[in-house]
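Input record (one chain):
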Amino acid sequence: MSLVAGLFETALSLSSPRAKGRPRQAKLRKAVSAAYYALFHQILQVSADSLVGTSAKKRKSQAWARVYRALNHKDVARVCRDLRRPPAASAEVHDPALVKFADIFLMLIVKREEADYDPNADFFKRDVQVLIEQAQSAALLVADIATEPTLDFVTAMLFGAKRA
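The corresponding structure, as predicted from the sequence alone:
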C-alpha cells in the first residue's frame, strides 16, 4: 500500500469509529490532518514522478527522493494561490483540474491548521468525512493531469513562478 493510500485509510478509520456514538475530537482532528497529508504526499509523488520517472528504479533513486523532499507546504500553497488568480496572458488558461486541486488543497490547509492548532474548533463526523472525500478526489485529479500542466505546476513550486 502506498503512503498516500495508507494516510487516506487512516483518515477514514479515524472518522468512522466502530463504537457507537460520536467519534472523539482527537480522532476527528487526526483524520483531518491525515487527509491533508495524504493530499500533500500525493502532490510530492506526482512531482517526483513528473520530473524523474515512475519506474520502481526511478522511484528508488536519489533524484526522485530529492524532488520529493524539495517541495514544502508553503511552496505548494503559493502556487495553488497563484492558480486561483486570473491568468496573466489572455491566451494562457489554467488547467481546470489543477485549479480544482488548488481550491481543495488550500481549503484543507486551513482545516488542518484548525485541527492541529485551534483548541476551540469542533469537528463533526460527517463534515470530516466530506473533507476526506474532497481530498481523495483532489488526489485523483492531480494524478490524472496531463504532463505539460503538471510540469508547469511542479516547476513553479520548485523554482518559483518566473516565466520564460
